[in-house]
Write a structure and sequence with these properties.
In chain A, about 70% of the residues lie in helices and about 0% in strands. By secondary structure, chain A is mainly alpha-helical. In chain A, helix 5 packs across helix 8. The relative contact order of chain A is 0.11. Chain B has 4 helices and 14 strands. In chain B, strands 4-5-6-7-14-13-10-9 form an 8-stranded antiparallel β-sheet. Chain B has a 6-stranded mixed β-sheet with strand order 1-2-8-11-12-3, with helices on one face. The longest helix of chain B is centred in the N-terminal third of the chain and has 17 residues. Chain B starts with a helix and ends with a helix. In chain B, about 30% of the residues are buried. Classes of the chains: A mainly alpha, B alpha+beta. At the A-B interface, helix 2, helix 3, helix 5, helix 6 and helix 8 of A face helix 1 of B.
């Protein structure tokens, strides 16, 4: 008989009872998205690593208060993102976001001509610059919802606001971006 | 979904994120209590008592401890000698050789060339780095080697708990302090050297890491964050 993998609820339950292996499995599952969220909110890799590290440690200590049956990801992101925002407030510095060097062509994509690839890259850089110019709460909403592809609920948890606030911030941020991009065109 | 939203999704997939760190995200209290290390520490204290020379005895006012290092605040520093430059760091060996001897991968910042590495008594690896043009010593040792650094500081020296990439550490700044250590066989090294620079101590996994140099706390912490 082959053991079936434990589902998340079982891992959480085991971690609540002090099973370190179960907790470490959960950490490995979510450390990537937690670190990227912290990086976008804190603005630099060192603070993001500290925020993710401290956030997971606090989450483990608070597992007893985690509501059974609730989704773990938004709960974890809320704790890690809170650590990241605290570090941004204290550090006051942020690295500029950048595109990966030599964007990959994904399997299934049509191979663009060099001119088309250059135009697409310029287009992305212009959009990124416009996002960077947004007020920080609009920028954070865009980063969580679109760059990290979090759901509205997860975005709300990461930003520590209600879903309705996420919706309104996103609507205003998108309107700002359209204006910026039209002005430049 | 509007075309702008689609473009934002696509942009997110092209962003350059820093490499994902491997988090040590378990609350310290949740780890099994390290009875083995308590026993070792007791043995070490007994060794210290056995090897202490009368002139070096002094009242210990306070202890600070992280993994393989203890900092004690004392009324009077023990007699210490100046460390010769490279000679005091041990034998010069290749990075690969020191990693073989110590049994762990050296934690280093990004370097342009193969670093010059010294190893002292089979326990302590040291690399000479530069921060803003100033020389800084990066030393590392593994807890499994039963190595233990003991630092003694006077009342004018600052000892401050810090966090380095989420891990506990100590920042030691001010007048010279002294350093002695135990080797991989648990033998106390009587030679005590005087340290003139500031020191940042922290742990990463089973490795205790130490930066020493005439640098500020901010400079040391900045460098420490690059060491992985």
């Amino acid at each position: 008989m082959v053991d079936r993998p434990l589902d998340e609820a079982e891992l959480v339950e085991r971690a609540r009872r002090g099973d370190l292996e179960a907790w470490e499995t959960l950490v490995r599952t979510y450390q990537g998205i937690a670190f990227r969220t912290a990086y976008l909110l804190a603005g630099n890799a060192a603070d993001a690593e500290e925020a993710a590290q401290d956030g997971f440690v606090k989450a483990q200590r608070a597992l007893g208060r985690f509501r059974r049956g609730a989704a773990l990801k938004p709960w974890l992101l809320r704790i890690v993102a809170n650590e990241a925002r605290n570090r941004r407030r204290s550090a006051g510095r942020r690295e500029r976001l950048a595109l990966r060097a030599g964007a990959e062509i994904r399997s299934g994509d049509a191979v663009p001509s060099p001119e088309a690839a250059l135009l697409a890259r310029e287009d992305q850089e212009r959009l990124l610059a416009a996002v960077e110019r947004l007020p920080h709460n609009h920028r954070d909403a865009i980063a969580c919802r679109y760059f990290l592809e979090l759901s509205e609920e997860e975005t709300a948890a990461a930003l520590g606001v209600r879903r309705g606030t996420v919706k309104s911030r996103l609507a205003r941020a998108l309107a700002h971006l359209r204006e910026h991009l039209e002005d430049e065109a | 979904m509007s075309s702008l939203e689609q473009r934002l999704h696509a942009l997110g997939r092209e962003l350059a994120f820093p490499p994902e760190p491997d988090l040590d995200a378990t609350a310290p209290a949740a780890r099994p209590f390290p009875w083995r290390w308590v026993a070792l520490a007791a043995a070490v204290v007994a060794l210290v008592a056995a090897f202490a020379v009368p002139s070096a005895r002094t009242s210990i006012l306070r202890f600070f401890h992280i993994q393989g290092a203890t900092v004690e605040r004392v009324e009077t520093l023990p007699p210490a000698q100046e460390r010769s430059d490279a000679g005091g760091l041990g034998q010069r060996v290749s990075q690969r050789e020191v990693e073989r001897r110590l049994g762990f991968r050296l934690l280093l910042p990004r370097l342009d060339a193969e670093p010059t590495v010294y190893v002292l008594d089979g326990v302590l690896a040291t690399v000479l780095l530069r921060v803003d043009g100033r020389p800084v010593l990066l030393s590392e040792y593994g807890a499994k080697d039963y190595a233990l650094l003991r630092k003694s500081v006077g009342d004018k020296t600052l000892v401050e708990p810090v966090r380095v990439a989420g891990r506990p550490g100590l920042w030691i700044e001010g007048p010279p302090h002294t350093l002695s250590y135990f080797n991989s066989r648990g033998e106390f090294r009587q030679k005590t050297v005087k340290i003139h620079g500031n020191v940042l101590l922290w742990t990463r996994g089973q490795v205790t890491v130490r930066l020493e140099g005439r640098v500020s706390k901010a400079q040391a912490l900045r460098l420490a964050r690059q060491i992985r």
